[in-house]
Amino acid sequence: MKFKKFSKALLMSALSVGVVLSVTSCVQSFTVGFLYVTNTVTASSTGNGQITGFKIDHNTGKLNQINGMPVSSGGANPVRAVLLSGGRFLYVLNRGANVEGNTNCTPDDPCQNANITQFVVGSNGILTPQETFYTQGKNPFRIVADSSGTFIYVLDHDSPVSPADPNCTKAFGNGACGDISAFQVNPTTGRLSLLVNAQVTSATGSALPYFPVPVNPIDFLWNSSFVLTLSGAPGATAQTGDFVFPYTYSSSGQLTVNQNTPQPINAAQATAIVAGAGNIYVLDNEPVTITTNGTSVVSPGGQILSYTVGTNGALQAKVGGAIPDDPSQSNPIYLTVESKGKWAYVANQGNNTNNTNAQSGIAGYVIDPATQQLSLISGGPFGTGAGPQCLIEDPSDQFIYTANFNDSTVTGRVIDQNSGVLNNLNAASSYTLSGPATWCLVNGRTS
After folding, report:
1. Which of 30, 143, 161, 311 meets the CB 3.0–4.6 Å disulfide criterion with 165?
2. Cβ neighbourhood burial of 215 (10 Å; 0-12, 13-18, 19+)
3. What is the domain extent for residue 353?
């Protein structure tokens, strides 16, 4: 009898251990992806920026810094970065600095030593620098890639010989313009090769090594069949307001002009053009009053203009008109649509002048599944650090992160899967960087 009791006790003990181990294995933490943040380092003796890398915890969204990072970005003032080839290669666009050592670069006083630095991504997330490449124009500040990772495009604020470029005059009837430098990516090595413009020749009849865009470009994007550039002026017409200029994209990487006249939009202080869930969104920072169904809403911090892409890349305004930004926010800088297409989030920089700016935050929107119209999520806006520069969802579609310029931090939030509300992480929600953040991106490749 005693032996039977002992056997039962031993069996129950074994079962208890099994249950505990089973529960433990269910909540075991693992890395779901890597978050990379570019930042400037004002105290750096080399003048180079940095890339800081974090492991993203699947269960909590907690960020753990990758061993061996941060690393040098390969140049001064890193402003953007892209990941290609399934997360194997990372490219950082370093804008450089002018002769005075600052980043307020102009056509007459351009940034020096701007470059694209290539990195190989290791299985542990560490970045190893490879080669350096250079754009054709001056003052590069945006970089994007096509969906296949075959081509990279860089937006130069000023063409190679601005402000009196005869190729600009040929293209737009004006002596000044910006340009796009295009590169083909070697799928094995990641090396970049300049893609010469086969559609437009120079004023002298030779092949043009860049693609002209209207003067004063603000932002651009790749969108399946088109590359769209948002500019702050229409070129030769001298009208007021902001404009969008389309190039048609082909599988060869070539960009083809379909219309030489940029398309005006109803914005005068546009900050960004982004794509999401089949739509194109232009963010505009001017104070606006928007009337919907007889109700007027004042949005001192701007508006969101929603479009689809029509023939030859022309933007078609969505029914319902402009959507006001959260009235308590200002300077919308980036928009992302979460993976299920249910919610959209807008990062607002605020006045971008100090590290206690109450106008920095995230405005959340519900996306109507039938009309794609946006309406503010109740409970917002959601806090960030001061002066967010980017907004990104993690590879597991649970968390949202911003990287913040004014207080040199990264902020993480968890998405409520029922309401779209952004709550604080169960772990720490703010992480300190060694310098002001300029961009962020995630890599879901962890092996």
Report:
1. 161
2. buried
3. 269-433
